User: Which sequence fits this backbone?
């Protein structure tokens, strides 16, 4: 496939972040350009041209699947961000950011009642 | 990062659904492994394979708590259904351990004590073959200044690597540096290790006696069997290989077999003979070999398809060589591949590695530094090579003109560090292999003209992804011998084999 | 036959509180009498009016009260005393009870710090009691003193600190460790604790700051999953507390041992638990995989817990070799060699305390009996129910 391949992406379904990540990933084998569909402004047209030789014949399918994975990654990144930040913050913190008792808690005071007899 | 208000973050962590079946995802990245399987890797490098259906259930928060996948994901800290601060603390401890190289700061100090060399290897544009005299030697004053700078590093363990050119041609300065460092360390109390990187050709008995006295390690170059080695490493008389072999024997007899290791440089010529190279290492009694990719320093840089072709042919070479290494082990000869070992340690153990090219942020300057013969300080040996090729981008300063603060706290090093944090690099930040990899801004500057680099065409990325995929594939294949072998490489402990007698 | 560790007699009216002392079989110098319990043979004392019994911590006899006992606290008409040797340390109780606290001849000596516990493990060998025994700290400290003042050859190589849950003593536990550091610096100290109270970082830090030269704290971990561990120890939240506690101990350089008791509720997750330990607690100095002692609550819960070790050999092998291959020190406790795959023999230790350690008749012609840990007396007692059997090893290539 030495011709350009054009893929139309619905921006009401897909985030700009996922579209760009997907395009970036394909820039190794293709020249990628993005334009807005003049007929339908909700759609972006991704145009892929081979860097050398020909495009992978299944490039449109690869793009579509990668777009879904990048969408998942975007959602996961958002969901995981607070905990991810907390892990890094705790890793480099002097004290305990999660529960100060883990740092300076006194077993005699036992505010959590751990020593309650069974 | 440290100023992050804990209360805000805790609140956002705690406020989520607390119903019995609710779980939170702990940070991980994923890669499609096959059509049916997904590879999940968390931020500290623990991984597991999940079938695609379970993966979809997992991210949709629909995974049944009674399923085996759920239990394993929970135990491996990919999800939390209790107090999330406990797994967060466990992960933070792991993360801190893995980033411990940061608090140690620069541990590896390269002293380039002369550019003179008796070899004229095409992959080294640095050596001055026909020179004599002291024009290309490091002076004692320069060495002394470099040693002072080294001791400013907070690292408790310091590795002094003396190289050239051929450093044995300036043996007096080796003595000077070693004695000076030992003397200086009487008040410092650091753990010091000396290594000389040498082609072994000029080695004599007096040098060996001294090396033994000071417990100096040797690292030599061995590119493969004689024809390949001698073609890669030309020397008047074309006898490089036979000199290595002869002097290797002498050095081992004097210093001990395990005191000499060898490094291999892969050239295009090498790519055709992976098995012969491995066999030669075995024949010469080495227990390790480092299959290093083709160096972009000293060669014309390949771009585009040529670069990808080169990366692909290196991977072919690597896989065949690794298979050969595994075969030797199967037959009872212990030999390990060092690059695989570094990656496997990251994949299979909770411990950090100290390989500066696979760290985030990268190790240039903050893990290793090179003091050139003329007093210039470079962020790495590669940065020094670039400078010899006329590119001074990564010259951090000069031992005579600049202070420790200027060299190690300056804008150049800060920028190098900032541009080698994988979490912020395009193409890396979402990659499942991130916890195992590094940024190598100097490589990308050299090959792509940009410290950040373009991952989809990066030979560094292609190689690391290729090797990692291969290693994961080997582990996934379930061959118990390979799993045991890789475990022993990763952990550094021999596997308690079935053949051993119970006691 | 298991050893006797207590006996009963009649206390004199002068024995008003527990008295600790070191057994002597012959009269001693005046200076050491305050630490000495003199053991008199029946008839030896009641005949000799002139016997000098002044100044001893106590007198112990199977005979009648000696006439010349003066005010020395005495337990007479003891049922038997032949289990006692010179150098043993005993406590004489006003109830007439005589309990052995320390035997120099044994490698398994422990200070039982308390009967209280904040967990209630389904297989607990000594179910806790909710009593206030905090005043026993005085005796514990006295015991350490007595051990230290014994003959140099009687200084133990190792001393256990156990319970109940020793950390419930709080600062008093730290006093015990300090006292051991000062008086028994060459004795390895091994504390058995559920580790939960080390959740409080300050407690772990202060234990670390004592800098005992040879301290190890053994902490059980029964699963890599919180709810399974909590179900075994019957205390919600215990898994999280123990984990953070272990992390804190690691942070303050207190050497920790992880102990996993193997039974029906823990065996399934044994390998994943080993993996969990390696990933999250790689600083563990020792990992002990322990066979179940069928006594106490374990008997009550036997149906839910008992599994023949021969039925989990494969799992045990996988977990043991997983840990060993990673350079972790791993031991298998409480398993006779014939119940364990031969490749694991090198990890088996003779761990059962001498006083409750037995062998079966069949063991007598086993080639490896002398290095086998044998059985718990409690298991031999229930050998029919548990289907315990020995498979004597004959072929040793």
Assistant:
């Amino acid at each position: 496939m030495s011709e350009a391949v054009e893929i139309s992406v619905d921006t009401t379904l897909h985030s700009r972040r996922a579209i760009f990540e997907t395009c970036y990933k394909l820039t190794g084998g293709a020249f990628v350009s993005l334009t807005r569909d003049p007929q339908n402004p909700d759609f972006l047209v991704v145009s892929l041209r081979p860097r050398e030789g020909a495009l992978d014949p299944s490039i449109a399918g690869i793009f579509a699947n990668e777009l879904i994975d990048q969408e998942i990654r975007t959602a996961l990144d958002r969901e995981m961000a607070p905990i991810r930040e907390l892990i890094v913050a705790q890793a480099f913190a002097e004290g305990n950011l999660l529960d100060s008792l883990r740092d300076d808690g006194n077993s005699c005071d036992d505010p959590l009642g751990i020593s309650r007899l069974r | 990062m440290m100023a992050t208000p804990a209360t805000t973050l805790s609140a956002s962590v705690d406020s989520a659904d607390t119903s019995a079946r609710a779980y939170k995802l702990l940070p991980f990245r994923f890669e499609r492994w096959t059509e049916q399987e997904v590879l999940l890797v968390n931020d500290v490098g623990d991984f597991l394979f999940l079938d695609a259906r379970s993966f979809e259930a997992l991210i949709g928060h629909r995974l049944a708590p009674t399923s085996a996948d759920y239990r394993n994901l929970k135990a491996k800290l990919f999800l939390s259904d209790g107090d999330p601060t406990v797994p967060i603390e466990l992960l933070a401890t792991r993360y801190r351990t893995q980033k411990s190289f940061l608090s140690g700061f620069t541990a590896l100090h390269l002293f380039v004590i002369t550019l003179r060399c008796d070899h004229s290897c095409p992959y080294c544009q640095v050596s001055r073959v026909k020179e004599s005299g002291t024009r290309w030697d490091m002076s004692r004053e320069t060495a002394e200044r470099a040693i002072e700078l080294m001791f400013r590093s907070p690292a408790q363990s310091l590795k002094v690597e003396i190289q050239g050119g051929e450093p044995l041609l300036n043996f007096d300065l080796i003595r000077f540096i070693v004695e000076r460092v030992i003397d200086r360390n009487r008040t410092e109390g650091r753990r010091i290790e000396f290594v000389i990187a040498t082609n072994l050709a000029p080695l004599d008995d007096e040098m060996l006696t001294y090396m033994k006295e000071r417990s100096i390690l040797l690292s030599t170059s061995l590119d493969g069997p004689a024809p390949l080695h001698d073609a890669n490493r030309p020397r008047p008389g074309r006898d490089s290989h036979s000199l290595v072999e002869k002097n290797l024997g002498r050095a081992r007899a004097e210093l001990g077999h395990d005191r000499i290791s060898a490094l291999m440089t892969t050239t295009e010529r090498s790519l055709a003979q992976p098995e012969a190279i491995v066999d030669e290492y075995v024949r010469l009694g080495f227990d390790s070999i480092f299959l290093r990719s083709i160096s972009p320093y000293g060669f014309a840089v390949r771009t585009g398809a040529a670069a990808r072709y080169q990366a692909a042919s290196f991977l072919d070479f690597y896989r065949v060589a690794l298979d050969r290494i595994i075969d030797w082990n199967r037959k009872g000869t212990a030999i390990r591949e060092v690059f695989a070992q570094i990656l496997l340690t990251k994949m299979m153990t909770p411990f950090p590695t100290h390989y500066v090219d696979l760290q985030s942020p990268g190790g240039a300057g903050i893990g290793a530094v090179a003091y050139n013969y003329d007093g210039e300080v470079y962020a790495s040996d590669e940065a020094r090579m670039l400078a010899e090729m006329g590119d001074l981008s990564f010259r951090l300063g000069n031992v005579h003109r600049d202070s420790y603060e200027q060299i190690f706290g300056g804008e150049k090093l800060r920028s190098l560090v900032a541009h080698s944090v994988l979490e912020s690099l395009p193409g890396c930040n979402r990659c499942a292999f991130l916890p195992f990899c590094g940024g190598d801004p100097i490589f990308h500057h050299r090959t792509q003209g940009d410290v950040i680099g373009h991952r989809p065409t990066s030979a560094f990325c292609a190689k690391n992804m290729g090797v990692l995929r291969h290693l994961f594939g080997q582990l996934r294949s379930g061959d118990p011998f390979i799993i045991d072998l890789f475990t022993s490489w990763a952990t550094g402990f021999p596997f308690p084999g079935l053949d051993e007698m119970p006691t | 036959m298991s050893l006797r560790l207590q006996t009963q007699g009649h206390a004199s009216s002068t024995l008003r509180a527990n008295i600790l002392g070191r057994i002597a079989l012959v009269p001693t110098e005046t200076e050491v009498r305050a630490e000495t319990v003199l053991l008199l043979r029946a008839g030896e004392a009641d005949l000799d009016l002139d016997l000098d019994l002044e100044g001893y911590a106590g007198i112990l006899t199977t005979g009648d009260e000696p006439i010349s006992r003066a005010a020395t606290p005495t337990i007479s008409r003891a049922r038997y005393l032949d289990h006692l040797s010179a150098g043993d340390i005993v406590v004489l109780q006003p109830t007439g009870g005589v309990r052995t606290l320390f035997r120099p001849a044994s490698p398994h000596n422990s200070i039982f710090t308390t009967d209280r516990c904040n967990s209630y493990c389904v297989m607990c060998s000594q179910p806790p009691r909710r009593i206030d025994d905090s005043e026993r700290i005085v005796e514990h400290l006295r015991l350490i003193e007595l051990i230290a003042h014994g003959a140099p050859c009687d200084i133990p190589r190792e001393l256990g600190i156990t319970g109940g849950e020793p950390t419930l003593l709080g600062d008093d536990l730290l006093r015990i460790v300090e006292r051991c550091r000062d008086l028994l610096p060459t004795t390895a100290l091994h504390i058995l604790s559920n580790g939960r109270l080390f959740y409080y970082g300050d407690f772990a830090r202060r234990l670390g700051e004592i800098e005992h030269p040879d301290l190890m704290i053994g902490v059980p971990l029964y699963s890599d999953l919180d709810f399974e561990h909590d179900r075994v120890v019957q205390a919600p939240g215990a898994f999280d507390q123990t984990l953070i506690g272990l992390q804190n101990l690691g942070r303050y350089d207190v050497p920790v041992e992880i102990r996993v008791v193997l039974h029906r509720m823990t065996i399934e997750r044994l390998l994943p638990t080993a993996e969990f330990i390696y990933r999250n607690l790689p600083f563990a100095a020792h990992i002990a995989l322990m066979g179940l002692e069928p006594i106490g609550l374990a008997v009550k819960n036997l149906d839910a817990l008992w599994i023949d070790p021969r039925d989990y050999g494969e799992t045990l092998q996988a977990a043991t070799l997983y840990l060993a291959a990673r350079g972790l020190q791993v031991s298998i406790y409480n398993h006779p060699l014939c119940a364990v795959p031969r490749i694991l023999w090198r990890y088996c230790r003779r761990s059962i305390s001498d006083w409750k350690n037995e062998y079966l008749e069949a063991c007598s012609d086993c080639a490896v009996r002398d290095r086998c840990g044998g059985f718990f007396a409690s298991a031999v007692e229930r050998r029919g129910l548990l289907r315990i059997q020995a498979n004597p090893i004959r072929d040793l290539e």
